[in-house]
Structures are given as structure tokens and as C-alpha cells.
């Protein structure tokens, strides 16, 4: 089927060589599945077909049309006007984003429907273009595909479930599967796990990962090579391109450091309570060098916690021990009683008296006339400062990864 499409596309392209070429799209562009216009004739027929199929697949599954146009001179128009007309005439469905590259002036510009401007601002487009030109490839097809993927992923994170990788084209899925063959969820580089236990642990990690659409990783290394455990774990996880939603327990044998690394939705939903719930028994086993047992507990408790994540992406509130309330109230009464008792005992020598005559030596003071006169009043007023607003923020709400580190 794909070969037939390439054959048809080749015929159309050969006809275009004897017909006038207009870089601006027409109203049938969307209907004909055209999202990439290459006036520079840089892409091969197969590349054009693949890019257009990819963009159509994104459009059908995510509901955003992503267009790329490269032109010689924008038909003599300013690039801003050209991009605007392209968006208006292409017949693509809203929302649409169009990226135009003009070869003659070496300029690029994006133009998009109003609803997308809050998502893709100028800084984002400038950064994206900088990343595109660094993507390797004999033609600009790979960078264009990178542009489509990046835009689609950002849109998906905001409006869908953030699982855009499920919608990649067949070729990309094949490449991803091929690359994943070299990536394992268990890397015992320090040889801490007995050989007869590794396969069972790996199988359990793979089952949990597949069931809950996350990556649950076990890793050990001999040393951190001078890095902090936090830096090492973050690089380790990202270099292997594990699932953006995942969890990893990494051990450094030389330093006896551990890193409980959380990424994506796991990082957002895990709190100190759930970290303690998983790590308490794990660390107890690690301190006795029972590595297989520790990792087995880590997998079991991780599955237990992850299975409780609700549809809205949250975990149940941690249970509260009622004894804490009783202990708090009883402790408060006890402390108050002790303080009052101490204060009371220090005042036993004091008794009520209407006058201070007991403090005067008899005959030492003789007043013939006495009176009281009000002289003046001095009042100093100070404005009561208003309480400052709390400027602290929850560190778990910023960034996309984190976790806990320590010694074992």
C-alpha cells in the first residue's frame, strides 16, 4: 500500500515539473493531506510522503494541524504576509501552526491560530528552531519531523494524556522498539544481585512497567565518578531514554549511596509518606547487604502504591493514626499542668494586701499634706505590621523529576 502511495506521489511530482509551481497552499491542502510544501525540492518523494502521513496522523489523533513550508522567496511577499496567507488559504482545521522558511533571506517565521499563542510563544519557537538545525540528516526532513514531534508533544501534555509516543508513525515505532532492545530495566553494573535472582527481578519490573505504563528501574554502579548521586541518577535515567513517567532505585556500591529517583507523574504524585512507605523496609535490607530482597520489596511496594493512583492522577490521603490526636491532647494538658504548677509554687510567699505599709520602716515617712495631680500624658503609637504573604512554594510542583537520596 505504501509503495502505491509513493508511486502516485511520484507521478504527481513529475507532472508538477511541467506545470507552474505555486508555493502558497490552496484550500484543498488539508483535504489532500498536504502539510509539507517544499518549493526548494530538497526532500525526496518518500520523505515528503512520510512527513505528510506523519502530520496527518498527528492531526487525526491530537486535533492539531502542524504545517511546514520552505520557499525560495515567499513569492516576493514579506515573510510575515506569506505565512499569514498560507495559514488562511491552506484549508487546515483550527488549531493550526505554520512554520515557514525562506531560503533567499535565510529567515524563518511561525504563524498560528490565536488559540495556540499562549502555548507556543516566541521564546519557544526560537528555541525549537535552534534545536531543529542541530538535528542530523542528509536533508532537512529529520529536523522537520523533530519540529512536528516537539509541537505535538507539548500540545498533548496540555490537552490530552501526555502519551503522544503511542501515536508515532510505524517507522518511528520500529526504531523505538529496536533502540529499546539495548535498554533494560535492570542494570546491575556493580554485581550486587545474585545471578539466579536477576531474571526474576527483571521480569517483575517489566510486568509492573507494562501494566501501569511507567518504567520501574533497578540500577547499581561501582562508583559515582565524582558526581553527586542526584546528578548521576538524573543523567543515568535520561541518557537511557526511559519513560518520562517512571521510578528508579539506584545504588552506588563504593559510596553506599542510594537515590530513589522519580520522574513525570510519579514525581508529582509521590509524597514523603509514600517514599517512607516504600523505602523503610528496603533500606533495612540494604544495610544488611541483602540486595535481592531489598529490590524485591522495592518492586512489590512500588506496585502497591502505583496501583492506587486514581484517574485524576492523585493518590489517596495517607491514613492518620488516631493515637496521634490523643497523644497530642494529653501531651498538651501535661505540659500546661507542669508550667502552671511551677509558676504557682514560686508565688506561695505572696499574699494580698490593700496597702504597702508593711514595706515601710515605722517613723521613716511623715507627710503633712498629700495630694495627687495629673501632669501630662506621653503616648507613642506604632503601626502594627501586616503579616507577610507566604512566598514559599512546594518543591514537588516545580520541575519534572526528583526524589530522595541518602546512605544505606
TrEMBL record:
Protein name: PF04536 family protein
Keyword tRNA processing part of the UniProt annotation: no
One matching Pfam family: TPM_phosphatase
Signal peptide range in chain numbering: 1-23
Entries under InterPro entries matching the protein: TPM_dom (IPR007621)
Disordered, as annotated region: 376-408
Record domain TPM: where: 187-304
Transmembrane segments annotated in the record for this chain: 323-342
Keywords noted in UniProt: Membrane, Signal, Transmembrane, Transmembrane helix
Domain of life the protein comes from: Bacteria
Compositional bias annotation for Basic and acidic residues: 380-391
Amino acid at each position: 500500500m505504501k509503495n502505491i502511495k509513493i508511486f502516485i506521489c511520484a507521478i504527481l511530482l513529475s507532472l508538477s515539473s511541467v506545470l507552474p509551481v505555486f508555493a502558497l497552499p490552496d484550500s484543498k491542502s488539508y483535504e489532500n493531506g498536504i502539510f509539507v510544501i517544499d518549493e526548494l525540492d530538497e526532500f525526496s518523494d518518500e520523505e515528503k510522503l512520510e512527513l505528510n502521513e506523519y502530520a496527518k496522523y498527528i492531526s487525526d489523533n491530537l486535533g492539531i494541524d502542524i504545517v511546514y513550508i520552505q520557499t525560495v522567496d515567499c513569492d516576493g511577499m514579506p515573510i510575515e504576509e506569506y505565512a499569514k496567507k498560507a495559514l488562511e488559504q491552506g484549508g487546515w482545521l483550527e488549531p493550526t501552526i505554520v512554520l515557514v522558511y525562506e531560503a533567499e533571506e535565510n529567515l524563518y517565521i511561525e504563524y498560528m491560530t490565536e488559540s495556540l499563542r499562549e502555548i507556543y510563544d516566541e521564546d519557544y519557537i526560537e528555541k525549537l528552531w535552534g534545536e531543529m538545525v542541530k538535528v542530523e540528516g542528509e536533508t532537512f526532513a529529520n529536523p522537520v519531523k523533530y519540529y512536528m514531534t516537539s509541537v505535538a508533544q507539548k500540545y498533548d501534555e496540555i490537552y490530552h494524556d501526555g502519551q503522544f509516543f503511542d501515536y508515532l508513525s510505524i517507522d518511528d515505532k520500529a526504531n523505538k522498539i529496536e533502540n529499546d532492545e539495548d535498554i533494560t530495566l535492570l542494570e546491575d553494573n556493580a554485581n550486587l544481585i545474585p545471578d539466579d535472582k536477576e531474571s526474576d527481578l527483571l521480569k517483575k519490573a517489566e510486568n509492573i512497567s507494562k501494566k501501569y505504563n511507567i518504567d520501574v528501574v533497578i540500577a547499581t554502579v561501582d562508583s559515582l565518578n565524582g558526581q553527586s548521586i542526584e546528578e548521576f541518577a538524573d543523567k543515568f535515567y535520561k541518557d537511557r531514554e526511559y519513560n518520562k513517567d517512571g521510578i528508579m532505585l539506584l545504588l552506588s556500591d563504593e559510596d553506599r549511596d542510594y537515590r530513589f529517583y522519580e520522574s513525570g507523574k510519579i514525581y508529582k504524585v509521590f509524597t514523603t509518606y509514600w517514599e517512607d512507605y516504600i523505602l523503610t523496609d528496603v533500606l533495612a535490607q540494604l544495610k544488611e547487604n541483602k540486595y535481592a530482597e531489598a529490590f524485591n520489596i522495592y518492586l512489590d511496594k512500588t506496585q502497591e502504591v502505583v496501583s492506587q493512583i486514581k484517574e485524576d492522577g492523585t493518590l489517596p490521603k495517607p491514613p492518620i493514626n488516631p493515637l496521634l490526636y490523643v497523644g497530642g491532647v494529653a501531651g498538651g494538658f501535661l505540659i500546661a499542668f507542669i508550667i502552671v504548677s511551677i509558676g504557682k509554687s514560686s508565688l506561695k510567699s505572696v499574699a494580698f494586701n490593700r496597702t504597702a505599709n508593711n514595706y515601710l520602716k515605722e517613723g521613716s515617712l511623715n507627710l503633712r499634706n498629700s495630694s495627687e495631680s495629673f501632669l501630662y500624658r506621653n503616648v507613642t503609637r506604632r503601626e502594627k505590621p501586616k503579616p507577610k504573604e507566604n512566598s514559599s512554594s512546594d518543591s514537588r510542583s516545580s520541575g519534572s523529576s526528583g526524589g530522595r537520596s541518602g546512605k544505606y
